Amino acid sequence: MFKFISLILRLFLYTVQGFLGLLWGLIKRKDPPNFSCDIVLITGGAQGLGRELALLFSSAGATIVLWDINQEKLRETVSEITARGCEAFGYVVDVSKREEIEEGAERVREEVGNVSVLVNNAGVLPGKLVKEFKEGEFEKTITVNFLSHYWTIKSFLPWMIENDYGHIVEMASFGSFSGGPLVSDYNSSKAAVYNFSESLHYELQLTGKKGVKVTCVCPWEMDTGFIPGRVKDFFSGAGIKKLSVGYVAAETLAAVCDGKFMIMLPKRYVVSAVLAFLSPRKIKDTVVGTYGYLKEEERMENEEELTNVIHYKKS
User: Fold this and answer.
1) What is the Cβ-side half-sphere exposure of residue 82, based on CA atoms within 13 angstroms?
2) Residues annotated catalytic, as ranges
3) What would the DSSP string read from start to end of 233-244?
4) CA distances from 299 to 230, 285, 293, 303, 306 (A)
5) Which of 8, 114, 128, 257 is deepest in the core (most CB within 10 A)?
6) Which helix (H) or strand (E) holds 88?
């Protein structure tokens, strides 16, 4: 009971803090962001949110380094940035392989310079039930979505700590705080990202290195085509519209400029998300079931349909 009351109080304080922060943001006049002295590295930076972040950071004066496995898209995004008169470099790096991350980090240091802003954005979402995963598929999601963050941070954090200057941006998810069908691997990896980010945040505080910040971004679904159709079918019942990558990128940049540890997007659903997290299991199951998330096998006519797009009807 004491723990529950403590969580409720924390929720109340967090809500008040959020409203005060929003009010202060409306009152305070902010200077345009300036990253002219920064080298910003973005994983998964060739398209989607990564590309949008690259465009925003470059517009703010940053030198951009993009890592991606899609060489064609990588070339296009680098060309788009340089055409604007900004500096950008692209490297084909598979973040699921630690050796490529370490080799890529060394190349960046030698050819571009020391990275002062690291954006861990690369991610995958297979959209499978637990029993559908083939050998190594679940592990691949954990590796790309979480372990790669650890490996990149191990490569670039030492310089940041030594110079007491830098920022690490971790792309987590709304799903960091709950589970659901078809996202066992994805939500588990994003939960790990959030908790790792918070742990790193506290460790940096303990070192006294106040110049090194961590920002964890937890967005709802974006309009990138990233999420498989069957996952969309399951979770569309929540009634939350897809977010534009422009909105998420802009909010991310603002959070970095403000030194915020965590943002959840869309902001208006933060309190609802926390309340859902604190709800007793029976209540949560009832609510989730109402939106059609649960009992998918009862809505399937046979096992074959279970492997295709999942349909449901609201009760």
Assistant:
1) 12
2) 186
3) HHHGGG-PPPBP
4) 14, 17, 11, 11, 9
5) 128
6) strand 88-92
